[in-house]
Design goal:
Blueprint lengths: L13 H7 L7 E6 L5 H13 L2 E4 L4 E4 L6 E5 L4 H13 L3 H6 L4 H16 L4 E5 L5 H15 L3 E5 L5 H6 L7 H19 L2 E7 L3 H4 L6
Parallel strand pairs: 1-7, 4-5, 4-6, 6-7
Antiparallel strand pairs: 2-3
Helix pairs in contact: 2-3, 3-5, 6-8
């Protein structure tokens, strides 16, 4: 351990990164928090921090070296690919997402957004987005395995664990309870992290789904 400490790629936030020892491969990190507090934005930010080596700093008025340059898979369940791309654009440019959505940016911000689009294009291979609006355990496994193996991806973000019709329908004949089905999905993500030796990150709600995920710890 002294020769090769068990630490992973840096994550944003010095205190948080120190506590978890970075994005360690073979590990599954699960964030639990309430609805509408920014779980998706935080995960997109962490994914961007690993995938893109630069972002714009408005205090310095220039692009700065911040982050890594690794391949990331982001599996979205509720958001469309376009919505996720808008979050990436906001993170890299440092411009509020609302300004981008409503086109309320000024000429200087417009120029930075155009530069950001070029950055996203240059590093397009580093950020893969897969959309699973109605995930099942089988579909989640096959999608993550395929993307990781074909594109040599080692960092996976799954947004997020919830009771989808597909997940519940997968076990309808077996009469598996909802809390058990959620637990099986989280276990599948953890097993994939070990099997593929990748860093796995996901989230769930504090009120509702989390209460059913008994035995799961952050």
């Amino acid at each position: 351990i002294k020769k090769t400490p068990e630490v992973g790629m840096n994550l944003p936030g010095h205190i948080f990164n120190t506590v978890v020892r970075g994005a360690r491969k073979g590990k599954f990190y699960l964030q639990s928090s309430g609805t509408g507090v920014g779980k998706t934005r935080r995960m997109v930010g962490e994914a961007c921090y690993i995938a893109y080596p630069i972002r714009y700093d408005w205090s310095m008025k220039q692009w700065v070296q911040e982050g890594s340059c690794e391949k990331v898979l982001y599996v979205g369940t509720e958001q469309t690919i376009q919505e996720i791309q808008t979050l990436i654009l906001a993170y890299l440019s440092g411009i509020n997402e609302e300004k981008i959505l409503y086109g309320k940016y000024n000429e200087e911000e417009k120029e930075i957004l155009e530069q950001t689009l070029r950055v996203m294009e240059i590093y397009s291979d580093n950020f893969t987005i897969a959309q699973l609006p109605d995930p099942t355990i089988q579909l989640v496994r096959s999608t993550i395995r395929k993307e990781c193996l074909l594109k040599d991806i080692e960092y996976v973000f799954y947004d997020y664990i919830f009771s989808s019709p597909g997940l519940l329908g997968e076990f309808r004949d077996l009469r598996v309870r909802e809390d058990v089905a959620l637990g099986m999905l989280s276990t599948a993500l953890k097993d994939l992290a070990v099997e593929l030796d990748v860093f796995m990150r996901s989230a769930t709600q504090v009120n509702g789904d989390l209460q059913e995920l008994k035995g799961i710890r952050d």
